[in-house]
Amino acid sequence: MARANDRTARQKGGRRARRSAALVAEDVEGGRAELVPDPDRPHAWSLLLDGAPQSHVDLDDPAYLDFAYQRRLGHVIDLAAPAGRPLHVLHLGGGAFTLARYTAATRPRATQQVVERDAALVALVRRALPLDPGARIRVRCADARAALAKLPDGWADLVITDVFSAARTPAHLTTTEFLTEVRRVLTPAGHYAANLADGPPLTHLRGQIATAAGVFPELALVADPAVLRGKRFGNAVLLASARPLPVADLTRRAAADPHPGRVEHGKSLTDFTGGARPVHDSGATASPAPPPSAFT
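Request: output the structure for the sequence above.
Response:
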């Protein structure tokens, strides 16, 4: 999920002008899916579910990442291994397969699995925005945690979680037990990255950091400074590993983005967490619903 106001007013106006002629809309399991054409890129589309922006895809240039949070996850993919080295990547949450397409474009020999529960959404995206047949991407229609449990130990170099149902992360994907399974599936040097969404007072985000800290010794968080200050609802990318993280490189890349992000790590991240406690299955709740203003 991403904020619609990451794009300029001019782009939104152009998008509305083309919507009646070129928009693709269907009911899927998760609500009303819309594929909205990008007025500035001839073969690019945004995926919305019930009005909430989910993904942006440029079929001509899958290495182009438009949404701020997806650019930050793209940095994680770039920094997970030296350039060009193939990776085993698990994507929990499919959307329009934006990050799987990005990985295939930047690491052509990567082996990827995408898990998306909404089979009707998968069918729509496959039909309207087909994957490159040469990409090594397998798409499975299943619950993210159930699919994770079936993977062997140490299969993945990178696990990316970007799962939203009605614009909220399901409760069973927010817990210590879930992240323990993620760590089992990762290689010893593997990375975990999650797209998290929260707003003031950032209770959910702080709890997710505390939960990850109980499973992984190394953490970093990257987000818009206004989100980190609790000024507005927005996305944050949490990165975790059993090994030291490329914090300096991530900081430079995030700062240079069109929508600059700030990286918290070490003591500053511990201070930001503010004594929050880890989340367990027995007490988990879904992430908070975004306010109506989040997508305007």
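The longest helix spans residues 9-22.
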